[in-house]
Amino acid sequence: MIYFDNSATTYMYPEALDTYVKVNQSFFGNPSSLHKLGTLADNLLQQSRKQVADLLSVSPKEIFFTSGGTEGDNWVIKGTAMEKRMYGKHLITSSIEHPAVSRSMQQLEKLGFEVTYLPVNKEGLISVTDLKEAIREDTILVSLIAVNNEVGSIQPIKEVGELLKNHPTIHFHVDAVQAVTEFNQILLHPRIDFLVLSAHKFHGPKGVGIVYKKHGKRIAPLLSGGGQESGERSSTENIGGIAATAKALRMTIERKEAARQKELAIRDYIRSFLEQYPNVQLFSHEEGAAHILCFALQGVRGEVMVHAFEQEDIIISTTSACSSKKGEVPATLESMSVPSEWSKCAVRLSFGEENTMEEAKRFTEVFKQLHKKFNIIQK
Question: Which PANTHER family does the record cross-reference, listed alphabetically (predicted)?
Fold first, then answer.
């Protein structure tokens, strides 16, 4: 099987899975308990927190564990709104955010908050000038996805960070779920206040997320209860999952440059191949993320293409795993002014470090066969 759906989820590193199993067998105590089993579990929790913090070059006190990227985005956005509502009710985001962000914003609009959705150009990028003009005295949050999950566009995080240096009271939140292999280029900016990651996007377990919360920045808790995670995120910590996440993040960051170069070579090989076809349209820009390539074959719906490749043991997806079963028009492509007759045909390839050039060549061979087949059908 050829797996080209890494943006939906990645396989767990065997080493991370081994850690998950061993920790759940040997460190099963509740880290909030006073007895020695609880102490052992808490020690491992804090070791994992420190490892993640060191990898991100931040303080362990700034790292919080959640159930995933969706919870992290919800927490930062709604927590900011609750904490800062006395100072303003205006939030800014883009028109191509993950639903964890866009639907959180829509909920807040129903509660009386006002949201500005920045438009994007045909490459899926916001304008920093548009952002500058959108900022108001009552703006409390700017929330942007670092790497778009549908087309791979990389937002100008550094430039936004520079702009927001002049607005220190505005929270700056970055959804970095798809951005681990792009880390050095876009994420290490000191103006970022909140950063959200999800373990299963970098070969860790499902159900574990990371939120970086800069020291001194306050948001209201989303979950109330026993006061875990320094009172910021109540719920008994998933020690096995957190330890496995720390290991997976370390391995991913250690391998990211080699992985990125491999993904880039595969993406560009397939991209060059697809550019030969006049009835194929590419939606991912060359300057976008190395691991994502979105395209459409004219007249062939995305779900049809997905199942056609699946019959050849090649796994791809429509533009977003979160909405693929709902038959929705891809929000990102709509915002990029892609006509619906093209966007409904869009599919996404997303690569990982385990993919090979031989798999890319196999993909092109199958595409040739399918292209011929679908052309005959359409005629």
Answer: CYSTEINE DESULFURASE ISCS 2-RELATED (PTHR11601:SF50), CYSTEINE DESULFURYLASE FAMILY MEMBER (PTHR11601)
CB under 8 Å to 26, separation ≥6 — which residues?
none
State how far the Cα of 33 lies from the Cα of 36, in Å rounded to an integer: 8
What would the pLDDT profile of 55-92 be if each residue is shown by its tens digit? 999 999 999 999 999 999 999 999 999 999 999 999 99
Report the top-level CATH class of 2-8+256-378. Answer: alpha beta
Q: Is the dihedral of CA 327, 330, 334, 335 positive or negative?
A: positive
CATH 3.90.1150.10 residue ranges of the chain are 2-8+256-378
The CATH code of domain 14-251 reads 3.40.640.10
Q: How crowded is residue 356: how many other Cβ atoms within 10 Å of its Cβ?
A: 13
Cβ-Cβ contacts under 8 Å for 187 (sequence gap 6 or more) = 146, 157, 174, 176, 179, 195
3-state secondary structure 1-34: CEECECCCCCCCCHHHHHHHHHHHHHCCCCCCCC
Residue 360 structure tokens: 């890319």
Catalytic residues, by residue number, are: 322
d(Cα 59, Cα 53) in Å, to the nearest integer? 6
Predicted TM-score of the model (pTM)? 0.94
